[in-house]
Design a protein that fits this description.
Largest sheet: 2 strands, antiparallel
Radius of gyration: 14 Å
Helix content: 25-40%
Number of helices: 4
Strand order of the largest sheet: 1-2
Shape: globular
Structural class: alpha+beta
Order of helices and strands: HEEHHEEH
Number of strands: 4
Strand content: 5-15%
Length: 116
């Protein structure tokens, strides 16, 4: 099976949002940088921040419950076993959740090494 690539599989997930998000600055260890959802290097650089944002609707804070299956949740980076991202400052996209299939595809791309 062919590995997922940014060009063929991931870029299209964000194409609808690339223009609206083009001015967003994100913090990095080397300062702030502008996120460019249509640019491989930018998406690769901010892959985890993007993952957190697209998983921002996984937990319904209002009703205190998960709305996705355990295997679709994003583990907290450096967290304990079974600890998943719940609190997200800026879920993406702002108007509501991406289709779960798109989120799963992005997560798989990250697991596979984020090929261009």
């Amino acid at each position: 099976m062919k590995k997922l690539s940014f060009k063929d599989d991931i870029k299209c997930l964000f194409s609808k949002y690339a223009t609206a998000m083009s001015g967003v600055k994100l913090a990095s260890e080397s300062g702030t940088k502008i996120l460019q959802l249509g640019d491989y290097e930018s998406v690769k650089f901010f892959y985890y921040q993007i993952q957190v944002a697209i998983h921002g609707y996984d937990y319904d804070r209002k009703n205190s419950k998960w709305v996705v299956k355990p295997e679709e949740r994003l583990p907290v980076r450096g967290g304990q076993q079974g600890e998943f991202v719940k609190e997200v400052a800026h879920p993406m996209p702002p108007a509501g959740k991406l289709p779960q299939e798109a989120i799963n595809l992005y997560d798989q791309w990250v697991r596979e090494g984020m090929h261009p």
